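Observation: inputs received (chain + zinc ion).
Thought: call the complex predictor directly.
Action: predict_structure
Action Input:
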Amino acid sequence: MDEQYQFEDLLHMTLSSLQDYLGLRAFGAYDLKAPIKYTQEKISKELKKEYQCRLQVCTAPDPNTIPADKWEENVLTWPNVNEGKAFSFILQNKTVETEYIGRNKDKKAYSFYESGFVGCLYSYCLPDQRNKVFIKGDMTPSTKVCDRPHNTWILFDSNSILTIWCTCVAGTSLCCSHILAVLYKINVAHKRGY
Ligand SMILES: [Zn+2]
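Observation:
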């Protein structure tokens, strides 16, 4: 059986079928003498570099270094994100074709929001740059393989999205379902007039 799986398919596999599949792939790669492209160490080094770079460009501190008691659970501090802003962010940062986002990813993000996977959102206004606000949340993973919540944050500047981070595998692409689900939640709050 020669099945071609897409990355999304792997995320929905059970752990045992994923192990079987990866085992077969490893044997195949060994037979072909395929070179190992990236080590885990190299990947995490690149991720750290990318993370620091996103914060530096926006002259913002690392939200993970902000003490827990400085974050507010207050919807009034949330930025004003309407559909136009959310959609233009998606289009600017899309790494997959628009049709895919429209049909699949967007639906998935909405179902995340609808099923309550988006927990509480916390905000932190930068004291020295009052128009900048971080919004962060813990997202229940959608996959069976990973059971730690994804750490997702977005940095806004006067209601515009400056940059984002999500610890999920798709998060570095600047457009994952968790980020979209957070944007939905903020947008719904805005529409309800908070
Ligand atoms: Zn994510």
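Thought: report the result.
Final Answer: The mean pLDDT is 78. The first helix runs from residue 7 to 11.
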